[in-house]
Amino acid sequence: MKLEEIISNYGVPDPKIVGHLPKGGMQLDFVGHADVTKALCEIDPAWSMEPVAFDNHGLPAFRVENGMAHMAAWMTIHGVRRLGIGSVMHNKPDLFKELQSDAIRNCAMRFGIYLSLWTKSEWEDVSHASSAPASKPAPKPALAPVKSVSAEPTDPLVSMDNIKRFVEACKTAGLNHEHVAKSAKLVLADLKESQMPALREAFAKAKELAAQFNDTEPEVMDDFNPQFNTTQEAVAAVINMFSAEEVVAESKANHPANGIPQIKEPGAPATTKQIGMFRALASSKGIGQKAEQLSMASDSTGRVIESLEALTKSEISELITILKA
Q1: Taking each helix axis from N to C terminus, what angle separates 95-110 and 33-43, rounded to the nearest 10 degrees?
Q2: pLDDT at 298 over 60
Q3: Model-level pTM greater than 0.70?
């Protein structure tokens, strides 16, 4: 398989291998490093990846910034070498394995493998690249002007890659792509480059209407002070509590100026304040139900979490970091 054929054959993953992780009020899709490795072996059985540098112990070198560990690596496919970065929380129990797994996914993306997972959630925000090749300049006239005849259409059809991105973006937003196109009086099978702005406008309006429709009266929370009538009131009270001077002081003590969080007793049970902060941040991101919060915690820790009190300080600190991102 040639390099230029990778994106057309492996740009969009089989839905059966796509996993889901709640993050920041939305659903994050991903493909595990094992399935990415399988794709790499199919593309080039001789592919390789190596860290950019090694430490004094012969292990891959990495650096920690703002609580995240980063490792740079080179990946080679069919003799072409490209740089990628693996990034995970610095306090992961299997740090080197986690860094390698993330680096495999990131490096493979540089070659176009499962690229749709990295772009679909931003489809409506990225600048649209034209599917048509750049037209060649007309030849200079000799003794008399020469009329140039272009064999390329002046308004070409939109590429299938961009159509797939639009469909995936609608799916992520919970919209029917055919209904969105119909609202703009467009036909996807015959979509022209000049019609892309109208399609994007229809997509943005559909998302806005869907958000208004889902903005129903919040459910009254049963595990907070009964004086609060709605989730918003409870969240506001919790956020106000965590802005207190003593909490800010404790936060500064645990996160010194060097940017490396120092979690005291990371294996100890999560504190009441940490659990309260996690609930407040999760609710502010649209993850207000207990079931949703427990599902997020289970996905993050890799084990079944039936109660937030079962989390450790280190685990809930990572969840809080994700919600603040």
Answers
A1: 50
A2: yes
A3: no
